[in-house]
Amino acid sequence: MPQLKTNLAKLDPVWAQIRGEAEEAVKAEPLLGGLVHACILHHNSIEKALAYRISTKLASSEMSEQILREICDEAYGADESLAMSARADIVAVYDRDPACHRFLQPILFFKGFQAVQGYRISNWLWREGHKDLAYFFQMRSSEAFGIDIHPGARIGKGIMIDHAHSIVIGETAVVGDNVSMLHSVTLGGTGKEEEDRHPKIGDGVLIGAGAKVLGNIKVGNCSRIAAGSVVLEDIPAKKTVAGVPARIVGEAGCATPSQTMNQVIERGFDD
After folding, report:
1. Of 227, 173, 223, which Cα lies nearest the Cα of 200?
2. Where are the domains of the chain?
3. φ, ψ at 154 (rounded to 5°)
4. DSSP string, 35-82
5. What single-letter DSSP state applies at residue 30?
6. Which of these CATH numbers, 3.40.190.10, 3.30.70.20, 3.60.21.10, 1.10.3130.10, describes 12-146?
7. Cα(96)–Cα(146) distance, rounded to whole angstroms?
8. Is-contact 150 173, C-beta < 8 A?
9. What share of the chain is helix, strand, coil (3-state, %, to 5)?
10. HSE-up of residue 31 (Cα within 13 Å, Cβ side)
11. How far apart are CA 259 and CA 27, in angstroms?
């Protein structure tokens, strides 16, 4: 058994860490043993654990857990990038959210992480041509988590959505790698146009709570959008914007705002 654990840690260090934490959690809180065993310890891979967790959260009288789990298993088997992105998301949440102390927490408890993984399955279905099934996943994620991500949106890896209530991401939105956003963020359109109508968010961007980014505009890499801002125009890379409508108020303040999570606008920026 020790050799097996060593090999697992080398092959998949994120999953090895999650299983180790799960074993400790059962010892520390026996009343959660059933949940932890069902979600983590009964599975031999992170793909199986994610498929189980997503299917249990999204199951309803309209679509059983078994059917949803088969869909998730097929998706993870067909596209290894889904689980790789999930691993990056777990590490991102652990690194950036001060309330996250273990890799185990996002899978078990954090609806932002869970909703993003549900989106990743719906996006795979969308790309495979199963659009009605993709819409079902979107609907159930919205009902279960209060987060509405269109399956046609393109979202990178290393995503952290903190608190995660009332997130809306539209069909033609693009979100780069290593983006962080807080609750009530909208990446929306500006009217009834049906073509490319949603924002393009670069890598390493930090989007504050309640910010609205509207229209087919570009937000440059490693920029910051202050809480409550309404962004209607392109933002250059490495800038901070604030206000309604948002305007540039200074530099981003660091090389990686989405990782430092510093949302304070320092004095000395242009009036």
Report:
1. 173
2. 12-146, 153-270
3. -115, 120
4. HHIIIIIT-SSHHHHHHHHHHHHH-BTTB-HHHHHHHHHHHHHH-THH
5. G
6. 1.10.3130.10
7. 22
8. yes
9. 45, 15, 40
10. 0
11. 32
Given a contact cutoff of 8 angstroms between Cβ atoms, the answer to whether 149 and 155 are in contact is: yes
**What are 180's strand-pairing partners?**
160, 206
The candidate with the shortest Cα–Cα distance to 47, out of 29, 72, 22, is 72
Neighbour-count burial of 194, counting CB atoms closer than 10 A to its CB (0-12 exposed, 13-18 middle, 19+ buried): exposed
What 102-109 contacts at long range (C-beta under 8 Å, 24+ apart), as own/partner pairs, is 102/21, 102/25, 103/14, 103/17, 103/18, 103/21, 104/18, 104/21, 104/22, 104/25, 104/40, 107/18, 107/39, 107/40, 107/49, 107/50, 107/53, 108/35, 108/36, 108/39, 108/40, 108/53
Report pTM: 0.92
Query: 């899978």: which residue's tokens?
Result: 107
Task: Evaluate the omega torsion of the peptide bond into residue 151 and state whether it is cis, within 30 degrees of 0.
Answer: no
pLDDT tens for 63-100 read 999 999 999 999 999 999 999 999 999 999 999 999 99
Report the C-alpha gap between 183 and 126 in whole angstroms. Answer: 25
Tokens representing 61 are: 């009288």
Topology of 153-270 in CATH?
UDP N-Acetylglucosamine Acyltransferase; domain 1 (2.160.10)
User: How many Å separate Cα 239 from the centre of its chain?
Assistant: 23
Instruction: Locate 238 and state its tokens.
Output: 């490495």
> Which H or E element spans position 230?
strand 230-231
Is pLDDT at 3 greater than 70 in this prediction? no
